[in-house]
Amino acid sequence: MNNTINQPTQLDANGLRQALRIAGGCTLGFAISKLLNWPNGIFFTVYPMLILGLVPTINKSIIIQFSASAGFSALVVLLMQGLFSHLPVLMTIFVFLTFCFLFYQMSTSGAFLFGALGAVSLSIQLHFASYAVGDSSIYPLIFDQYIQEVSSKGGNALTLLTQFMSDWYVETTRWTNQLIKVCLLYTSDAADE
């Protein structure tokens, strides 16, 4: 029986530089989100980790893929949650197909980052979207932040076109919260009997 103990691998100068670059980017992103009191600091930590870990230099293609993956994930979650949340089997099939599309994009040479970032952000946003009650819903996360940013840059037409989504969210939240209260009351009454 061989009782040798493997020595831990040592980082060379380049590996240490990459590790510090990733750790510094994550720390800086998280610190900025906390200092500016921005919600959902996970995005300011995960995105720098992925981008700094996967890409040696930032260029136009990287920025386009990053922006496209963020927009794609937000759109998919809004459509899936809004249209199919009451049909879980159909929603699961669409989520599976969407992840298949993203993994296919990762396997093609030109859109790896789009697929990788899309898969991570989609999984995080679907997780947030699964909590339909209270302040943890995905709609304020996307609309309040994104629409404010777009309208501050002259996108008032987009704000007018999407206003119904914010109104719908407010109405749906009231209805959903009341429904959950009644279900909880009914469940506790049934348990008492």
Q: How does the overall form come out from the CA principal axes?
A: globular
Mean pLDDT: 78
Largest sheet composition: none
What is the share of helical residues?
over 70%
SSE order, one letter for each helix or strand: HHHHHHH
End-to-end separation in angstroms reads 64 Å
Task: Estimate what percentage of residues fall within beta strands.
Answer: under 5%
> Runs with pLDDT <50, length 5+?
none
How many domains? The number is 3
Number of helices: 7
Q: Rounded to an integer, what's the Rg over CA atoms?
A: 21 Å
Care to count the β-strands?
0
Structural class: mainly alpha
Could you explain how this protein is built, in words?
- It is a single chain.
- By secondary structure, this protein is an all-alpha fold.
- It folds into three domains: 15-54, no CATH class; 58-130, no CATH class; 133-193, no CATH class.
- Helices cover 78% and strands 0% of the residues.
- The chain is built from seven helices and no strands.
- Helix 1 packs antiparallel against helix 2 (42-54) and helix 3 (60-84) packs parallel to helix 5 (112-129).
- The longest helix is centred in the last third of the chain and has 37 residues, at 156-192.
- The radius of gyration is 21 Å and the shape is globular.
- It starts with 12 loop residues before the first helix and ends with a helix.
Would you summarize the structure shown here?
This protein is 78% helix and 0% strand. The protein is mainly alpha-helical and 193 residues long.
Structure keywords:
3 domains; 193 residues; 7 helices; 78% helix
